[in-house]
Known about the structure:
- The protein is an alpha/beta fold.
- The chain contains 15 helices and 16 strands.
- The strands form four sheets. The protein has an eight-stranded mixed β-sheet with strand order 4-3-2-1-5-8-9-10.
- α4 (74-82) crosses α5 (110-116).
- The radius of gyration is 24 Å and the shape is globular.
- Mean pLDDT is 79; it is low at 1-10, 271-308 and 391-401.
Amino acid sequence: MEGGARLRAGGTKWDVRQKVWDHLEASGLADFPRPVHRRIPNFKGASHAATRLLGLQEFKAANTVKINPDAPQKNARFLTLEARKTLLVPTPRLRTGLFNKIVPPPGATKEILRICATSQGIKEYSVPVGLDGKARVDLVVVGSVAVSEKGWRIGKGEGYADMEYAMMVSMGAVQEDTPVVTIVHDCQVLDIAEELLDDHDLTVDYILTPTRTIKTDCKRPKPQGILWHKVSYEMLEKIPILKSLRYREKQAGKDVTLQDEHSDLANANTPAASNEKATAENTRPQTAIGSAQTGQHHVESDSFSPRLEESGMITTVYVGNIPHSVRVSELKCALREFQATPLRLNWQGAQHKAFLDYKDKATAESAVSSLKGLSLGGKTLRVELAKNQRSKGQGEINSQK
Length: 401
Protein backbone atom coordinates (compact mmCIF):
# COMPACT_ATOMS: atom_id res chain seq x y z
CA MET A 1 0.00 0.00 0.00
CA GLU A 2 2.99 2.33 0.27
CA GLY A 3 3.14 4.82 -2.58
CA GLY A 4 -0.53 4.47 -3.47
CA ALA A 5 -1.51 0.84 -3.90
CA ARG A 6 -4.31 0.06 -6.34
CA LEU A 7 -7.64 -1.15 -5.07
CA ARG A 8 -9.18 -3.99 -6.99
CA ALA A 9 -12.49 -3.51 -8.76
CA GLY A 10 -15.47 -4.50 -6.68
CA GLY A 11 -14.17 -3.17 -3.39
CA THR A 12 -16.69 -1.31 -1.26
CA LYS A 13 -16.04 1.80 0.79
CA TRP A 14 -15.90 -0.40 3.85
CA ASP A 15 -13.28 -2.63 2.17
CA VAL A 16 -11.16 0.46 1.54
CA ARG A 17 -11.46 1.66 5.13
CA GLN A 18 -10.60 -1.76 6.52
CA LYS A 19 -7.48 -2.05 4.33
CA VAL A 20 -6.21 1.34 5.45
CA TRP A 21 -6.92 0.80 9.15
CA ASP A 22 -5.38 -2.70 9.10
CA HIS A 23 -2.29 -1.49 7.26
CA LEU A 24 -1.68 1.47 9.57
CA GLU A 25 -1.85 -0.81 12.62
CA ALA A 26 0.20 -3.66 11.12
CA SER A 27 2.95 -1.37 9.78
CA GLY A 28 3.45 0.54 13.02
CA LEU A 29 2.36 3.81 11.39
CA ALA A 30 -0.71 4.22 13.60
CA ASP A 31 -0.48 6.83 16.34
CA PHE A 32 -2.58 7.67 19.42
CA PRO A 33 -5.53 7.22 19.81
CA ARG A 34 -5.38 3.50 19.10
CA PRO A 35 -6.67 1.38 17.56
CA VAL A 36 -7.32 3.59 14.55
CA HIS A 37 -10.23 1.47 13.34
CA ARG A 38 -13.52 3.38 12.98
CA ARG A 39 -11.66 6.69 13.37
CA ILE A 40 -10.09 9.31 11.17
CA PRO A 41 -6.73 7.65 11.79
CA ASN A 42 -3.85 9.45 13.40
CA PHE A 43 -0.47 8.52 11.97
CA LYS A 44 3.23 9.08 12.52
CA GLY A 45 4.23 12.11 10.49
CA ALA A 46 0.87 13.88 10.74
CA SER A 47 2.43 16.94 12.34
CA HIS A 48 5.00 17.27 9.54
CA ALA A 49 2.33 16.76 6.88
CA ALA A 50 0.35 19.63 8.37
CA THR A 51 3.27 22.04 7.94
CA ARG A 52 2.69 21.80 4.19
CA LEU A 53 -0.30 24.06 4.80
CA LEU A 54 2.18 26.93 5.20
CA GLY A 55 3.25 26.50 1.58
CA LEU A 56 -0.27 26.77 0.16
CA GLN A 57 -1.17 30.18 -1.24
CA GLU A 58 -4.79 29.42 -0.31
CA PHE A 59 -3.79 29.08 3.35
CA LYS A 60 -1.70 32.24 3.28
CA ALA A 61 -4.63 34.21 1.86
CA ALA A 62 -7.26 32.72 4.20
CA ASN A 63 -8.69 34.72 7.08
CA THR A 64 -10.99 31.99 8.43
CA VAL A 65 -10.11 28.28 8.36
CA LYS A 66 -12.41 25.43 9.35
CA ILE A 67 -10.54 22.33 10.56
CA ASN A 68 -12.02 19.10 11.89
CA PRO A 69 -11.28 18.20 15.55
CA ASP A 70 -9.51 14.88 14.92
CA ALA A 71 -5.99 14.11 16.17
CA PRO A 72 -4.16 14.13 12.77
CA GLN A 73 -5.20 17.78 12.28
CA LYS A 74 -3.97 19.02 15.68
CA ASN A 75 -0.87 20.70 14.24
CA ALA A 76 -2.94 22.24 11.43
CA ARG A 77 -5.12 23.86 14.09
CA PHE A 78 -2.04 25.14 15.92
CA LEU A 79 -0.49 26.58 12.75
CA THR A 80 -3.76 28.35 11.97
CA LEU A 81 -3.88 29.92 15.43
CA GLU A 82 -0.17 30.80 15.27
CA ALA A 83 -0.80 32.59 11.97
CA ARG A 84 -3.47 34.66 13.80
CA LYS A 85 -6.24 33.36 11.59
CA THR A 86 -9.77 32.65 12.78
CA LEU A 87 -10.12 28.94 13.54
CA LEU A 88 -13.51 27.24 13.39
CA VAL A 89 -13.91 23.67 14.62
CA PRO A 90 -17.10 21.62 14.18
CA THR A 91 -18.83 20.69 17.41
CA PRO A 92 -18.50 16.95 18.17
CA ARG A 93 -21.12 15.04 16.17
CA LEU A 94 -22.85 18.37 15.57
CA ARG A 95 -24.86 17.83 18.75
CA THR A 96 -25.09 21.46 19.86
CA GLY A 97 -24.47 23.41 16.68
CA LEU A 98 -22.12 23.55 13.72
CA PHE A 99 -19.03 25.55 14.67
CA ASN A 100 -17.04 26.58 17.68
CA LYS A 101 -14.67 29.50 17.24
CA ILE A 102 -11.39 29.05 19.09
CA VAL A 103 -10.56 32.21 21.05
CA PRO A 104 -7.09 32.07 22.63
CA PRO A 105 -6.54 34.29 25.67
CA PRO A 106 -4.88 37.69 25.01
CA GLY A 107 -1.12 37.42 24.61
CA ALA A 108 -1.26 33.61 24.33
CA THR A 109 2.16 31.98 24.07
CA LYS A 110 2.96 29.15 21.65
CA GLU A 111 2.41 26.71 24.49
CA ILE A 112 -1.07 28.09 25.13
CA LEU A 113 -1.86 28.02 21.40
CA ARG A 114 -0.83 24.36 21.30
CA ILE A 115 -3.25 23.66 24.14
CA CYS A 116 -5.99 25.59 22.29
CA ALA A 117 -5.44 23.24 19.33
CA THR A 118 -6.14 20.11 21.42
CA SER A 119 -9.54 18.60 22.13
CA GLN A 120 -9.34 19.92 25.70
CA GLY A 121 -8.41 23.38 24.43
CA ILE A 122 -11.36 23.36 22.06
CA LYS A 123 -13.60 22.84 25.10
CA GLU A 124 -11.92 25.53 27.20
CA TYR A 125 -11.16 28.25 24.67
CA SER A 126 -14.07 28.25 22.27
CA VAL A 127 -17.38 30.00 21.77
CA PRO A 128 -20.28 28.70 19.66
CA VAL A 129 -21.02 30.30 16.31
CA GLY A 130 -24.76 30.34 15.54
CA LEU A 131 -26.41 29.99 12.17
CA ASP A 132 -26.57 33.76 11.98
CA GLY A 133 -22.91 34.28 12.86
CA LYS A 134 -22.27 35.25 9.23
CA ALA A 135 -19.26 32.92 9.14
CA ARG A 136 -17.27 33.05 5.91
CA VAL A 137 -14.87 30.14 5.57
CA ASP A 138 -11.90 30.65 3.24
CA LEU A 139 -10.33 27.20 3.59
CA VAL A 140 -11.67 23.83 4.77
CA VAL A 141 -9.42 21.11 6.24
CA VAL A 142 -10.98 17.67 6.66
CA GLY A 143 -9.76 14.28 7.78
CA SER A 144 -9.92 11.20 5.60
CA VAL A 145 -9.50 7.45 5.87
CA ALA A 146 -8.56 7.23 2.20
CA VAL A 147 -8.27 9.65 -0.69
CA SER A 148 -7.34 9.40 -4.37
CA GLU A 149 -5.08 11.69 -6.35
CA LYS A 150 -8.22 12.67 -8.27
CA GLY A 151 -9.58 14.17 -5.06
CA TRP A 152 -12.11 11.49 -4.22
CA ARG A 153 -12.41 11.01 -0.49
CA ILE A 154 -13.63 8.28 1.86
CA GLY A 155 -14.27 9.19 5.52
CA LYS A 156 -14.88 6.92 8.48
CA GLY A 157 -18.44 6.21 7.40
CA GLU A 158 -20.59 8.40 9.63
CA GLY A 159 -21.01 11.21 7.09
CA TYR A 160 -20.25 14.12 9.41
CA ALA A 161 -17.64 15.83 7.18
CA ASP A 162 -19.99 15.63 4.20
CA MET A 163 -22.87 16.96 6.30
CA GLU A 164 -20.72 19.75 7.78
CA TYR A 165 -19.81 20.93 4.29
CA ALA A 166 -23.41 20.72 3.05
CA MET A 167 -24.53 22.73 6.09
CA MET A 168 -21.85 25.34 5.39
CA VAL A 169 -23.20 25.64 1.84
CA SER A 170 -26.72 26.04 3.23
CA MET A 171 -25.47 28.78 5.58
CA GLY A 172 -23.59 30.54 2.81
CA ALA A 173 -20.30 29.99 4.67
CA VAL A 174 -18.53 28.39 1.69
CA GLN A 175 -18.64 29.04 -2.05
CA GLU A 176 -18.09 26.73 -5.02
CA ASP A 177 -14.42 27.73 -5.18
CA THR A 178 -13.65 27.39 -1.45
CA PRO A 179 -10.65 25.01 -1.37
CA VAL A 180 -10.81 21.77 0.62
CA VAL A 181 -7.62 20.18 1.99
CA THR A 182 -7.04 16.81 3.63
CA ILE A 183 -4.02 15.62 5.64
CA VAL A 184 -3.18 11.90 5.41
CA HIS A 185 -0.29 9.46 5.34
CA ASP A 186 1.08 8.47 1.93
CA CYS A 187 -0.35 4.98 2.35
CA GLN A 188 -3.84 6.47 2.57
CA VAL A 189 -3.57 7.80 -1.00
CA LEU A 190 -5.19 5.08 -3.10
CA ASP A 191 -7.04 4.51 -6.33
CA ILE A 192 -10.74 4.79 -5.55
CA ALA A 193 -13.35 3.61 -8.03
CA GLU A 194 -15.63 6.49 -9.01
CA GLU A 195 -18.70 4.31 -8.69
CA LEU A 196 -18.10 4.21 -4.94
CA LEU A 197 -18.87 7.93 -4.69
CA ASP A 198 -22.31 9.33 -3.93
CA ASP A 199 -23.57 12.78 -4.86
CA HIS A 200 -23.31 13.90 -1.21
CA ASP A 201 -19.62 12.93 -0.92
CA LEU A 202 -17.13 15.74 -0.38
CA THR A 203 -14.11 15.92 -2.69
CA VAL A 204 -10.75 17.56 -1.95
CA ASP A 205 -8.53 19.99 -3.83
CA TYR A 206 -5.26 19.36 -1.99
CA ILE A 207 -3.78 16.30 -0.29
CA LEU A 208 -0.97 16.87 2.22
CA THR A 209 1.21 13.90 3.21
CA PRO A 210 4.55 13.69 5.03
CA THR A 211 6.30 13.57 1.62
CA ARG A 212 4.02 15.32 -0.88
CA THR A 213 1.64 18.17 -1.60
CA ILE A 214 -0.82 16.90 -4.20
CA LYS A 215 -3.07 19.26 -6.16
CA THR A 216 -5.95 17.12 -7.36
CA ASP A 217 -7.52 19.43 -9.97
CA CYS A 218 -10.75 17.64 -9.07
CA LYS A 219 -13.57 18.38 -11.50
CA ARG A 220 -16.29 16.48 -9.66
CA PRO A 221 -18.72 19.02 -8.13
CA LYS A 222 -18.85 19.34 -4.37
CA PRO A 223 -22.22 19.04 -2.58
CA GLN A 224 -24.45 21.99 -3.42
CA GLY A 225 -26.25 21.92 -0.10
CA ILE A 226 -28.15 19.51 2.10
CA LEU A 227 -29.82 16.69 0.18
CA TRP A 228 -32.94 16.48 2.32
CA HIS A 229 -34.23 13.38 0.55
CA LYS A 230 -31.23 11.54 2.02
CA VAL A 231 -31.75 12.86 5.56
CA SER A 232 -33.71 10.59 7.92
CA TYR A 233 -35.80 11.44 10.96
CA GLU A 234 -33.12 9.73 13.04
CA MET A 235 -30.41 12.02 11.65
CA LEU A 236 -32.61 15.04 12.31
CA GLU A 237 -32.89 13.99 15.96
CA LYS A 238 -29.15 13.39 16.28
CA ILE A 239 -28.22 16.76 14.76
CA PRO A 240 -30.59 19.40 16.18
CA ILE A 241 -29.11 22.23 14.09
CA LEU A 242 -30.32 20.38 10.99
CA LYS A 243 -33.86 21.16 12.13
CA SER A 244 -33.08 24.87 12.14
CA LEU A 245 -31.57 24.73 8.65
CA ARG A 246 -34.50 22.68 7.39
CA TYR A 247 -36.98 25.17 8.83
CA ARG A 248 -35.06 28.05 7.25
CA GLU A 249 -34.93 26.38 3.82
CA LYS A 250 -38.61 25.42 4.05
CA GLN A 251 -39.48 29.07 4.73
CA ALA A 252 -37.45 29.97 1.63
CA GLY A 253 -39.64 27.65 -0.46
CA LYS A 254 -37.20 24.76 -0.93
CA ASP A 255 -38.24 21.12 -1.05
CA VAL A 256 -37.17 19.70 2.32
CA THR A 257 -38.99 16.36 2.13
CA LEU A 258 -37.05 13.83 4.19
CA GLN A 259 -36.00 10.32 3.23
CA ASP A 260 -38.65 8.80 5.51
CA GLU A 261 -41.34 11.16 4.23
CA HIS A 262 -40.84 9.99 0.66
CA SER A 263 -41.83 6.47 1.70
CA ASP A 264 -44.68 7.89 3.79
CA LEU A 265 -45.97 9.79 0.77
CA ALA A 266 -45.79 6.68 -1.38
CA ASN A 267 -48.13 4.89 1.03
CA ALA A 268 -50.35 7.88 1.82
CA ASN A 269 -53.00 7.16 -0.81
CA THR A 270 -53.87 3.64 0.27
CA PRO A 271 -57.31 3.24 1.94
CA ALA A 272 -55.74 1.81 5.09
CA ALA A 273 -53.34 4.73 5.37
CA SER A 274 -56.18 7.23 4.87
CA ASN A 275 -58.27 5.62 7.61
CA GLU A 276 -55.27 5.48 9.90
CA LYS A 277 -54.54 9.16 9.31
CA ALA A 278 -58.16 10.11 10.00
CA THR A 279 -58.12 8.14 13.24
CA ALA A 280 -54.87 9.79 14.30
CA GLU A 281 -56.26 13.26 13.58
CA ASN A 282 -59.33 12.55 15.69
CA THR A 283 -57.34 11.24 18.65
CA ARG A 284 -54.37 13.65 18.56
CA PRO A 285 -54.19 15.79 21.73
CA GLN A 286 -55.26 19.38 21.12
CA THR A 287 -52.51 21.42 22.76
CA ALA A 288 -52.38 25.10 23.50
CA ILE A 289 -50.27 25.78 20.45
CA GLY A 290 -52.68 24.03 18.12
CA SER A 291 -55.70 25.95 19.37
CA ALA A 292 -54.13 29.35 19.86
CA GLN A 293 -54.84 30.35 16.27
CA THR A 294 -58.36 31.25 17.43
CA GLY A 295 -56.96 33.32 20.27
CA GLN A 296 -58.41 30.98 22.87
CA HIS A 297 -56.46 29.26 25.58
CA HIS A 298 -57.03 25.54 25.40
CA VAL A 299 -55.65 23.04 27.90
CA GLU A 300 -55.43 19.36 27.02
CA SER A 301 -57.17 17.63 29.91
CA ASP A 302 -55.17 14.39 29.96
CA SER A 303 -51.69 15.89 29.88
CA PHE A 304 -52.24 19.21 31.63
CA SER A 305 -54.50 18.95 34.64
CA PRO A 306 -54.76 20.93 37.87
CA ARG A 307 -53.29 17.95 39.66
CA LEU A 308 -50.20 18.10 37.47
CA GLU A 309 -49.94 21.84 38.04
CA GLU A 310 -50.15 21.45 41.77
CA SER A 311 -47.65 18.61 41.82
CA GLY A 312 -45.00 20.90 40.36
CA MET A 313 -44.21 18.50 37.53
CA ILE A 314 -44.59 21.20 34.87
CA THR A 315 -41.21 22.45 33.62
CA THR A 316 -40.81 25.80 31.90
CA VAL A 317 -38.47 26.66 29.03
CA TYR A 318 -37.26 30.21 28.47
CA VAL A 319 -37.00 31.53 24.90
CA GLY A 320 -35.11 34.82 24.58
CA ASN A 321 -33.52 37.09 21.99
CA ILE A 322 -36.78 37.16 20.00
CA PRO A 323 -36.59 39.98 17.42
CA HIS A 324 -39.23 42.70 17.61
CA SER A 325 -40.43 41.82 14.10
CA VAL A 326 -41.29 38.21 14.99
CA ARG A 327 -44.93 37.41 15.72
CA VAL A 328 -46.17 34.72 18.05
CA SER A 329 -47.60 32.79 15.09
CA GLU A 330 -44.07 32.37 13.70
CA LEU A 331 -42.84 30.90 16.96
CA LYS A 332 -45.83 28.55 17.12
CA CYS A 333 -45.15 27.39 13.57
CA ALA A 334 -41.51 26.70 14.43
CA LEU A 335 -42.45 24.79 17.59
CA ARG A 336 -44.77 22.54 15.61
CA GLU A 337 -42.12 22.04 12.93
CA PHE A 338 -39.54 21.02 15.54
CA GLN A 339 -41.98 18.74 17.36
CA ALA A 340 -41.51 20.85 20.50
CA THR A 341 -45.15 21.86 21.02
CA PRO A 342 -45.64 22.91 24.66
CA LEU A 343 -48.70 22.46 26.83
CA ARG A 344 -48.88 26.21 27.20
CA LEU A 345 -47.14 29.25 25.74
CA ASN A 346 -46.72 32.61 27.49
CA TRP A 347 -45.79 35.17 24.81
CA GLN A 348 -43.99 38.32 25.95
CA GLY A 349 -42.92 39.71 22.58
CA ALA A 350 -42.49 43.27 23.83
CA GLN A 351 -39.78 41.94 26.15
CA HIS A 352 -38.35 39.76 23.35
CA LYS A 353 -39.09 36.55 25.21
CA ALA A 354 -41.56 33.73 25.72
CA PHE A 355 -42.08 30.90 28.20
CA LEU A 356 -43.06 27.36 27.23
CA ASP A 357 -44.60 24.91 29.71
CA TYR A 358 -43.95 21.17 29.31
CA LYS A 359 -45.36 18.25 31.25
CA ASP A 360 -42.05 17.28 32.89
CA LYS A 361 -38.34 18.03 32.91
CA ALA A 362 -37.42 15.31 30.41
CA THR A 363 -39.86 16.69 27.82
CA ALA A 364 -38.62 20.22 28.45
CA GLU A 365 -34.98 19.19 28.05
CA SER A 366 -35.84 17.39 24.80
CA ALA A 367 -37.49 20.58 23.53
CA VAL A 368 -34.40 22.64 24.45
CA SER A 369 -32.21 20.18 22.51
CA SER A 370 -34.52 20.28 19.48
CA LEU A 371 -34.68 24.07 19.43
CA LYS A 372 -30.93 24.67 19.79
CA GLY A 373 -29.80 27.01 17.04
CA LEU A 374 -33.34 27.99 16.01
CA SER A 375 -33.26 31.24 14.07
CA LEU A 376 -36.22 33.60 13.61
CA GLY A 377 -36.18 37.06 12.10
CA GLY A 378 -32.45 36.95 11.46
CA LYS A 379 -31.43 36.12 15.02
CA THR A 380 -30.57 32.88 16.81
CA LEU A 381 -32.93 32.46 19.74
CA ARG A 382 -31.72 31.74 23.25
CA VAL A 383 -33.42 28.56 24.48
CA GLU A 384 -32.84 27.09 27.94
CA LEU A 385 -34.66 25.79 31.00
CA ALA A 386 -36.11 28.76 32.89
CA LYS A 387 -33.91 29.57 35.87
CA ASN A 388 -36.84 30.31 38.18
CA GLN A 389 -39.81 28.13 37.36
CA ARG A 390 -42.79 30.48 37.22
CA SER A 391 -45.94 30.02 39.25
CA LYS A 392 -48.12 27.75 37.18
CA GLY A 393 -51.15 29.97 37.00
CA GLN A 394 -49.82 32.73 34.74
CA GLY A 395 -49.47 30.97 31.43
CA GLU A 396 -52.18 32.63 29.35
CA ILE A 397 -51.63 32.48 25.60
CA ASN A 398 -51.90 35.71 23.71
CA SER A 399 -52.40 35.06 20.03
CA GLN A 400 -51.43 38.56 18.94
CA LYS A 401 -48.13 40.25 19.38
